[in-house]
From TrEMBL:
Gene3D superfamilies: SET domain. Coiled coil: none annotated. Residues 12-177 form the SET domain. Transmembrane segments: none annotated. Pfam families: SET. Residues 211-236 are annotated as: Disordered. This is SET domain-containing protein.
């Protein structure tokens, strides 16, 4: 009896590409539907943390995990070192690191530029992880994808889903922090942790806003989002991100999460249910006023 032939795995939906001014990036290999899973990634490096942990304690946990990786899998350790590193912090020669100061500084810089925080069921940071592929996602203040992780289910794997249609060849980006952060807060974090200033369309608009306009955006109340939706319908170019806020930003108080459609069905039908990547809320598309909240039990 002939052995059943196994079909080859489907081609990846994203691939690494060098883009001018962006460095190594991830671009779509074909048209991507809303909610499609772009990749699922397992951590290259994982180390524990806690809300009470100091920077020094987190750094020590990182270096212990990196040292263990260097012994158990030298190839994975070299892959870790090959990831982009932002500003290199100063390291004292008297540091208790198992690595020389220069290598310690590189590891800290790689961690600062690439680590994803993992939260427990109470949304408290419980660990940090560095992923071999997800680390290539660049930042955008209006991303076209968002990440989901479920460490409370016993897994540190990360999944990235598309927010909306993405044409082939388009760069796929995440936001490195909650989308509803204000302009000044976003720019300060990007400059401090990643060494660059963002000049996306949203930032160019918000750079000219007054402080009270920025504070209104950060509050993100229903009234403010309704006003933005009205501006969008009127075609006001001063609010290029109004529709994004109405559709994709979770309206649960103090959440700050991003809503992405559930994965399409097996026949390719796009889901009309969106899931928050922070609080897990489910919402029917078109129910942005909050009346269509679904039971996510």
């Amino acid at each position: 009896m002939a052995a059943a032939s196994s079909s080859p795995p489907p081609p990846p939906l994203v691939q690494v590409a060098d883009l001018p001014g962006r460095g190594r990036s991830l671009i779509a290999t074909r048209h991507i539907k809303p909610g499609e899973i772009l990749l699922s990634d397992s951590p290259l490096l994982l180390y524990p943390s806690s809300p009470a942990a100091s920077d020094a304690e987190d750094h020590a946990a990182l270096l212990r995990a990196a040292h263990s990786l260097s012994l158990s899998s030298p190839s994975s350790f070299h892959q870790l070192l090959s990831l982009h590193a932002g500003p290199t912090p100063p390291v004292s020669s008297s540091s208790s690191s198992p690595f020389p100061p220069s290598l310690t500084a590189t590891l800290l810089a790689v961690d600062r530029s690439n680590a994803f925080a993992l939260a427990d069921a109470r949304r408290r940071v419980s660990a940090y992880a560095i992923y071999p592929l997800a680390s290539f996602f660049n930042h955008d203040c209006l991303p076209n994808a968002c990440r989901f992780d479920y460490p409370d289910r016993g897994s540190a794997d990360l999944t990235v889903r598309a927010l909306h249609d993405i044409p082939p060849g388009r760069e796929v980006c995440l936001s490195y922090f909650p989308v509803n952060w204000g302009y000044k807060e976003r720019q300060a974090r990007l400059l401090e942790d990643y060494g660059f200033r963002c000049e996306c369309d949203r930032c160019r608009v918000e750079a000219n806003w007054k402080d009270d306009e920025e504070n209104m955006e950060e509050d993100g109340g229903d009234e403010g989002m309704a006003e933005e939706e009205e501006e969008e319908e009127e075609g006001d170019g001063d609010f290029p991100h109004a529709y994004f806020f109405v559709k994709f930003v979770c309206d649960v108080e103090n959440c700050g999460g991003t809503l992405a459609p559930l994965p399409p069905s097996d026949d390719g039908t796009v889901s009309d249910v969106l899931e928050c990547n922070v609080c897990g809320k489910l919402r029917k598309e078109g129910d942005e006023d909050g009346d269509g909240e679904m039971d996510d039990d």
